[in-house]
Write a structure and sequence with these properties.
Layout (H helix, E strand, L loop, with lengths): L3 H13 L4 H12 L5 H16 L4 H14 L17 H19 L35 H9 L6 H14 L2 H7 L1
Helix pairs in contact: 1-2, 1-3, 2-4, 3-4, 4-5, 6-7, 6-8, 7-8
Length: 181
């Protein structure tokens, strides 16, 4: 169980770590998974606000932005304005995915309007995009369609392609794994 002490310990570890950007990246990832209560979210958002205003390597900023999408609502998307002119692929794409995830959560009431219960999925990590509800929408049970969506970056945006990828992961069949490969 993610306690407040664990959240605070992760933040302290981030501040003490000065040799490994990869560890800082993973700390941001972990914090993005720890959105268990309003108190957790308040502490985590304050941390991400500080990080996104700071001067950190792109790998750290990427994970902070992605994690922000897991714990944030639209008012915190203003933090991403800093990267609006960013032409580097990873930060641009991560900001795009984060914005689309927040919009999706709002438009679907966190998946309810798609009859998608995120806490009942096979994989319950907070991901940058939800899977499609392939049990409710038969077209999303078509592995070939999902594979073609992942590969078609002209017809489908990055968020839709991620959704197709995570749908294949949820299917957890041999055919789905082959399509992901």
């Amino acid at each position: 169980m993610a306690t407040i002490e664990a959240v605070e310990g992760m933040i302290k570890a981030f501040d003490l770590e000065d040799r490994s950007d990869l560890i800082r990246h993973e700390i941001c990832y972990c914090l993005g998974q720890m959105n268990k209560s309003p108190e957790h979210i308040k502490i985590i958002l304050s941390f991400f606000e500080r990080i996104l205003k700071g001067d950190y390597p792109k790998i750290v900023l990427h994970e902070a932005v992605e994690a922000l999408g897991n714990v944030s609502e639209e008012h915190n998307l203003k933090l991403l304005d800093r990267f609006s002119e960013e032409k580097d692929g990873i930060l641009y794409e991560t900001c795009f995915l984060t914005q689309k995830l927040v919009e999706w959560k709002q438009a679907t009431q966190n998946g309810k309007l798609e009859c998608l219960n995120l806490s009942k999925l096979r994989c319950t990590t907070n991901d940058p995009a939800p899977p499609y509800n392939f049990k409710r929408e038969p077209k999303y049970a078509d592995v070939k369609l999902l594979e073609s969506m992942i590969l078609d970056n002209e017809k489908y945006d990055l968020f839709e392609r991620y959704r197709a990828l995570f749908t294949l992961r949820e299917m957890n069949t041999e055919e789905a794994v082959i399509a992901m490969c």
